[in-house]
Amino acid sequence: MKKTLILSTAALMASTALASAQGVVNLYNWGNYTSPELLERFTAETGIQVTVTDFDSNDTALARIRQGGHGFDIVVPSNTYIETWVSEGLMQPLDPAIVTDRGNIAPQWVDVDFDPGREYTVPWAWGTTGIIVNSAVYDGNPHDAGVVFNPPEELRGRINVIPEMSDVMALAIYYAGGDSTCTDDMGVLRQVRDMLMAAKPQWLALDYGTVDSYAAGDLSAGIYWNGASMRARLQNDDLVYGYPETGYPIWMDNAGVLSDAQNPENAMRFINFILQPENAALISNFARYANGITGSEEFMDEVMREAPEIVVPEHLVAAGRFGQACSQEINDIQTQIWTELLQ
Amino acid sequence: MLDRNFSVRRLPGFGAIAVFTFVMLYLPIVILVAFSFNEGVSQSSWDGFSLQWYEAAFQNRQVRDVSIRSLWLALVASGFATVLATLAALGTTRVSRFPGQTMIYALINQPLMVPEIVTGVALLIFVAAIKVQTGYTGMGYLVAAHTAFCIPFAYLPIRARLETMDSTLESAAADLYANHWQAFRYITLPLLVPGILAGFMLGFVISLDTVVITEFVKSAGQDTLPTYMLGQLRRTVTPEMNAIATLFLALSLCIVTAFFLITRKRGA
Question: Touching check for B215 and chain A: CB below 8 Å?
Answer without folding.
Answer: yes
